[in-house]
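ok trying this again, last paste got cut off
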Amino acid sequence: MQNYKTEINQAQTTLNQQGAGWQAIDAESVARMRLQNRFKTGLDIAKYTAAIMRADMAAYDNSPANYTQSLGVWHGFVGQQKMISVKKHFNTTKGRYLYLSGWMVAAMRSEFGPLPDQSMHEKTSVPALIEELYTFLKQADARELQQLFSELDAARETGDEVKVQAIQKQIDHFQTHVVPIIADIDAGFGNEEATYLLAKKMIEAGACCIQIENQVSDAKQCGHQDGKVTVPHEDFLAKINAVRYAFMEMGVEDGVIVARTDSLGAGLTQKIPVSQRAGDLADQYNAFIDGQAITSLDQLQSGDMLIKQGDKLIKPTRLPNGLVRFKANTGEDRVVLDCITSLQHGADLLWIETEKPHIGQIAGMVNRIREVVPDAKLVYNNSPSFNWTLNFRQQVFDSWQQQGKDTSGYQRDNLMQAQYDETELAMEADQKIQRFQRDAAKEAGIFHHLITLPTYHTAALSTDNLAKDYFGEMGMLAYVDKVQRQEIRQQLACVKHQNMSGSDIGDEHKEYFSGTQALKAGGKDNTMNQFA
């Protein structure tokens, strides 16, 4: 908390020490500018937000009701509007973060244009987006404080001392829009040195939390697509170490690492690690390798390899591209080993990429992990890649069948159809979706729930609706009725887009710098006054 009067006094002391040459500078204006720019560097932000995440993690350990949430963003303005909305509706940002999705960076921010989620985009675009997000969040602070300063000046002019004191209290207890960002570094964009260098850039930009996955960097796939290839634990742990070293070097000692495993949906590995002794991590990893038992060297062909699994020699199953296949139905076992190993070697949180949102499936793996690491916690992707409606209707259908309840009025494979929307089954499914985050936090160890791509889809949906009506019969009424009128009625700050872009902040600065000579944009002829 920064005290308004203390800031003014400190600025005045400095000005007094400089003498007459600085007399044109106003101490209160300096104090206002300082408060509007609380965070001077990205490292200031990373340290501040890391402490928030650590406190939230401890609160969750005390009670799973203290789970946290975030929405994915692809532009600074989008992130800014989310946090302005959160403060507007809930009066606090506590427990609400932002998520920076590698998928969104690839699809929305690459100079190559839209790309698949395969680490093909420029890796520098990731720290650049982190910096952009925090620039917009800091501007949201400056804008809200500028409004408070204007109200303070107005209260002083009317001599309302009670209101003056109340506004100063609001300024002193101002809650910033700056919140933690969970930032996706994909599989590290190269070897462990490349991962370390990129992690440093991300931390310098403000990242307090970095999520890294155990796929092969140059063969990385979206977690919800086929063809995923994982790396042995030694490779992944080296990258976790690289991120931790980056945090430590930059002085963000409580930085948070999220270790993501894609093993549930990954059936391939790129290499077979070298085991040093029976039962070590390499040996455990190799135990999952699929292959043909070999009893005679005559069974081998040129270029074949052998590994020992327990008491057997096997010829690993290799694809034409050289990748090695895992045994079928070993995904969950590999996930559990990945998670335990990551937590035992420096990770703070887990991310298990699943193919459906099913609390029982997640809890089954988490309970096994917690037998070894009791305080294991997850970040979970409430992914738009899931058909939530169909998944949960099918879960209810299956549950009803197990209970012996009549399901003859439903076709399991067609439950997405609108004809079921008002049925008892659909309503029960919607209730389960509504409770999903709360129930999963309690039953499946999920500390943080996020939606990776919400604004990608909301932007597409709202644009489609506007285009249909604006270019159709509604014409301009489509915009007025469905956009501007709703902004006004719902009191969206963005209806005053000039103010949102910083015009009023600029007017105040001009007045600081030029006094009564300042040419300001916010006069009587500013059409934004129509929205007062």
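PB: full thing came through this time. The longest strand covers residues 68-73.
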